[in-house]
Amino acid sequence: MAPSSSLMPPARPGIRRLSSMTATEREIKEGGPVVVVPERMLHHRRAHTHNGGFAASMETARKELDALNLEDDGALSLTSSSPQTPGSPVTPPEAPSADAFAFAFDIDGVLVRGGRPIPEAIEAMKVLNGENEWGIKVPYIFLTNGGGKTEAERCIDLSLQLDIEVSPAQFICGHTPMREMVEKYGTVLVIGGEGEKCRQVAEGYGFRDVVTPGDIIKDNAATTPFRKLTAEEQRNSRDRNYGETKIEAIFVFADSRDWAGDIQIMLDLAMSKGGYIGTLSETFDEGPPIYFSHNDIVWSAAHDNVRLGMGALRKMVEMLFKDLTKGKELETIAFGKPQIGTFEFATRLLQQWRKDEHRINAPPETVYFVGDTPESDIKGTNMFNEKAKNEWYSILVRTGVYQEGTVPAYEPKVTVDTVLDAVHHGMKLEFAKKMRRASESFSLDNLVMKNKSLNGDNYELNSDKIPYPSNAPAIKLSETSTPDLIESPPAV
């Protein structure tokens, strides 16, 4: 069961800027769209790496465009994310945005490992935010199977780790699409995460009655003989007779912190009669549905070797259910990568972000997805690329789950060392693509001109550089193929 395509990212009419050092979840959630900004960037825009470098390069590019007589026709353009202002060596103008392509990133093993930023990730973000030889900003979003925190909390964490502006409108966690289930289920059991975090996330999504394993254990300590609640868990767990409470669905929002206890409760409900814990079905097909926010068996943490993830928990629950029921299969449902529904949601989120933040009201021709796990990141990207209207280009990095010397189960378009290499690779491909299109256009113009000359046709000078036949139709690049990385094409 794939997530519905009806879930749309919210419109963002204006953006507030909050410090990553002091922002709270409440501030982020209230008052409209927001970006979380490193403290040093809150009141002062980051200066360009080379003072005046961007203004100078733009002036050079414009002179080249004038010489080619393209700028006046609007054939080649850069999309600016803010109104243009005169440049100066001290105050360079806002960098324009690339309109033809964008990036999407996994987080763990690509940008962060064990809670610490991968050094190349910080540099990669600088490149995407305008510190590159073309002086452009490239739109990007984050698509992670990780969870257990609100999207707002993830923004604060990532802003601090990578020293960048981050908005919840750029974020998809593994459990983000689960908000679609709010109207479908009443009382739900939420598994995983630290303390009450996942309950808070679920309630933030709009679930009306959220139960945790701690609630059930507090009601009946014999449910998990070897798990004793801490004093804090006792205080936070809610009093109720859960033997009389119908659990309509189980959601695993994040990795379990107590596999034994959580598996026991999940199996009790899976084998129950109608979702009432403590009962036992005769047919073992009356339990509530179980949803996992992703299916990654392993993930990249601070340890040298990969660690077991939610996909491993899912396999254990299914295997134990089969053993306990003498062969009955338990059907569970996974969200996250590589599920197509997650990539469909990412497409809509990216398009909304490009429109609101970069003023680009069109989908990108190419999305470069950078991940570290062949079984989720690469598989999902390749599958979605087969059905998407635009291109989704898979890039595998060697900083996470993938181990050098092994053959990935799902082949990426390219494998690189780090996320910085991935960004450079994508931008170079785009530059080559734009140059090829520009060159083909100039070659076509030149061919028309030569043919007209052989036929004795008259010319009007369309510029002081290139003669153009007066009766020939204007040849322009379409908006969808407009290069946003431009350099003078070779002479023809």
UniProtKB/TrEMBL annotation:
GO terms for cellular component: mitochondrion. Coiled coil: none annotated. Gene3D superfamilies: HAD superfamily/HAD-like. It holds the Pfam family Hydrolase_6. One of its GO terms (biological process) is glycerophospholipid biosynthetic process. It comes from the Eukaryota. Residues 77-88 have a biased composition (Polar residues). Residues 75-95, 472-492 are annotated as: Disordered. This is Putative CDP-alcohol phosphatidyltransferase class-I family protein.
